[in-house]
Sequence to fold (161 residues):
Amino acid sequence: VEDETAKAVLAFIIRRHEPMIAPTWGIHVGGDKDRLAGTIRCLQGTGIPIAAVRDGDTGETPKENIFKLPGTFPPEKEIFQSPAFAKHLAETYGVHLNDFTATLTGVDHHQWFNLLATKLGIDQKALIWESSRVYVSGLRENETSTLVALLKEASQQKKTT
Fold:
């Protein structure tokens, strides 16, 4: 995956559909979309069961085990547009998401969780994981089940000679 937010989102998507195999799969941050694709292409044919999951605003190539997260934006933007996240933020922290996002004009989306964590006085990484859990719980099952099925298939591919 591209970053820590994508890692958290993918972890909860996998746990939602395959909780027993979730601990057996490694999810690693590997860099931007091009680096991920390059890594997958480099390791094809080695017999290593590997796949890349890029952000939702990036294309996918399922035949090469290059997939994407749900949605059409980076996961930070998807989370911050999520009604489930807005509700959780208001109920848990008393923060109205629309008021907070109004302060983000011109701010790179990679900084949003840092700013929100500072406002809430909590650890940024913990906030990312909490927010990802809430976001994924608000997604429809059909938005996540196909990705998990594709990853499961990729993890079972045999080495070709």
